[in-house]
Amino acid sequence: MVVSWLADGEPAARGAASAPAGALSALRQGLRPQRPAVRFAPAGPDSVPLDPVPDDDTAERADATTSTFRDAARRRHHVHHARLGGLRPGTRYRYTIEPAPSEAPATGEFRTAAAPGDPGEAFTFTCFGDHGTDEPDDPYGTAASRAVVGALDRYDPLFHLVIGDLTYASLRQDPARAWADWFRMIAPSARHRPWMPVAGNHESERGMGRFGLTPYQAYFASPPNGAGPDYEGLWYAFTVGRARFVMLFGEDVCYQDHGEVYLYGFSEGRQTAWLERTLREARADGAIDWVIVGVHQVAMSTAAYHNGGDLGLRAAWLPLFDRYQVDLVLCGHEHHYERTHPVRGVVPDSTELTPLPALTTEPAVLSTAPRATARPVVGSLTARPAGAELERIDATTGAVHVTIGTGGSSTPSSEALFDPPAGRVVVEAEKRHGAGRRRTVYRLEAAPWLAARSTEHPYAFAALRVDPGEPGGTTTIRVTVHDSLAPDEPPFDDFMLTRPRPGEAGSA
Ligand SMILES: [Fe+2]
User: Fold this and answer.
1) Residue 134: partners with Cβ closer than 8 Å, 6 or more residues away
2) N vs C: which end of the chain shows fewer Cβ within 10 Å?
3) What is the fold, at CATH topology level, of the domain defined by 113-507?
4) Which residues form the Calcineurin-like phosphoesterase domain (predicted)?
5) How far, in Å, from the CA of 239 to the mean position of ligand 1?
6) pLDDT of residue 98
7) Which pLDDT score is estimated for 185?
8) How many other C-beta atoms lie within 10 A of the C-beta of residue 27?
9) CATH code 3.60.21.10 region(s) in the chain
10) Which of the four CATH numbers 2.60.40, 3.10.180, 2.40.30, 1.10.3470 does domain 1-112 have?
11) Residues 6+ apart with CB under 8 A from 175
């Protein structure tokens, strides 16, 4: 567990004046500046959650490391990260940041995942991508950006996945301000549960290091991937219970040129080699049932006027997802909700490498009514009738891709879906003379992979309940998808992935 916080704001000046204000005033008083740290202790049954942790020997202390970078205006920014070690499973902890930051809460509480075999081993996590803030001068977010932070907390997730395009900082005049606003906005949730990030195309900032990712890498202290400082934090994996989460940076393999820095191939194969190794090890591990991928960009999309699925992603990573039986792929980038049937392999003779659905059922709602009438578009979701059977999907037949770039972006794509369904695929990024982005070349394809989508709910998040089941039985992930602006309404999508869980011998 890592507790991270922004150092107190600094003036634009350089030199001594740019030392953190707290440290500077301490020096003036002849005191040694207090090193940033976190004190933490198990929360007792009668402890008041947000009271400071007592400064006695019941508490442990974790010193912070500090990541520093200079922005384009030459201002220096510091981000502190304290790694809390020796945590017990299934335990609630309180923590206090010292010295107290002026811009962030100084106290918080979190809980750790249950130990394997414990009755409380089932857990919930939440996800969405494409967020932004509700600040008046942020043209990329909306009121929904803030609403979703409170809405997801109702599900008390163990952690949250935020699947790329977190702040749109790369498009802002003052990217550091955008990040500070975003962290302040998410703090009511993120002080109580990890927000695990995925980097999107808008995370790379012009002039900010070799790949434009120095600020992103400073803001987050994600689990190491071993690829060296240029690449740390851009892809990583972690395990919760019997699920392995694999977070990827799609810019490496996607053809589309839609960031400040064109990053196709930037890791020179490092990420794909790591991915293959990580997936192979996960599938060889008897203690892992579920393999869940997070990647900002999508392999499939029925949006008519947005980013599209990317052939580069299909070519580079979908064969690995097939080979190692990835169960679930969580994406953003398209600003609407849609999900696919389980897919494995490609439609024969498809030059677009159109993923092949394992199921041949029709979309959830099929209407042949004329387009002029008010009706749901093909595959659009309606509330599941009371008493209707829950849709159960055998995850061993392929990977289900869920697109949920519905965190709060001001440009939703839910109104721009092909009907009848078709897929739009980025097949090339054409380099042109002079400056500017490469031109995206698209092709259309049939969309046999489409299972369901929504035109009605542009702002949404998914809550995923992972239930390990019993050895020799069935393990499940129940996915419910909620409108962020109407969190009291029933979920507008609700389905369950199932997978056989090996018996005791296989789970050693
Ligand atoms: Fe994006």
Assistant:
1) 141, 142, 143, 144, 145, 146, 185, 408
2) C
3) Purple Acid Phosphatase; chain A, domain 2 (3.60.21)
4) 124-337
5) 26
6) 93
7) 97
8) 13
9) 113-507
10) 2.60.40
11) 71, 72, 167, 169, 205, 208, 215
**The tokens of 319 are what?**
């064969």
Residue 249 CA to ligand 1 centre (angstroms): 11
Instruction: Name the percent of the chain lying above pLDDT 90.
Output: 77
> What is the distance in A from the centroid of ligand 1 to the CA of 374?
30
- The structure's pTM equals 0.92
Residue 7 Cα to ligand 1 middle (Å): 28
Give the pLDDT confidence score for residue 324 in this predicted structure.
98
Q: Of the candidates 399, 404, 161, 449, which has an alpha carbon nearest to the alpha carbon of residue 291? A: 399
As annotated, the residues of the chain forming the CATH 2.60.40 domain(s) are 1-112
335 Cα to the center of ligand 1, angstroms: 9
Quote the ligand 1 centre to 401 CA distance (angstroms): 16
CA of 153 to the centre of ligand 1 (A): 24
Phi, psi of 328 (to 5 degrees): -145, 135
Tell how far the Cα of 303 is from the centroid of ligand 1, in angstroms: 13
In this prediction, residue 384 carries a pLDDT of: 63
Cα 107 to Cα 54, 93, 100, 209, 218: the distances in Å are 12, 11, 9, 33, 22
**What residues of the chain score a pLDDT lower than 70?**
9-33, 49, 360-379, 382-387, 505-508
Query: Which letter does DSSP use for residue 362 in this model?
Result: P
Name the 3-class secondary structure at 478: strand
DSSP annotation string for 11-74: -S--GGGGS-HHHHHHHHTTPPPPPPEEEEEEPPTT--TTSPPPSSTTSEEEEEEEEEEE-TT-
- Identify the DSSP state of 352: T
Q: Which of 412, 330, 462, 407 is nearest to 133 (CA)?
A: 407
Question: DSSP per residue over 159-216, as a string?
Answer: EEEEES-SS-GGGSSSHHHHHHHHHHHHHHHHTTS-EEEE--GGG--TTSSTTS-HHH
| Structure token pair of residue 388 | 């209707």
Cα 202 to ligand 1 centre (Å): 6
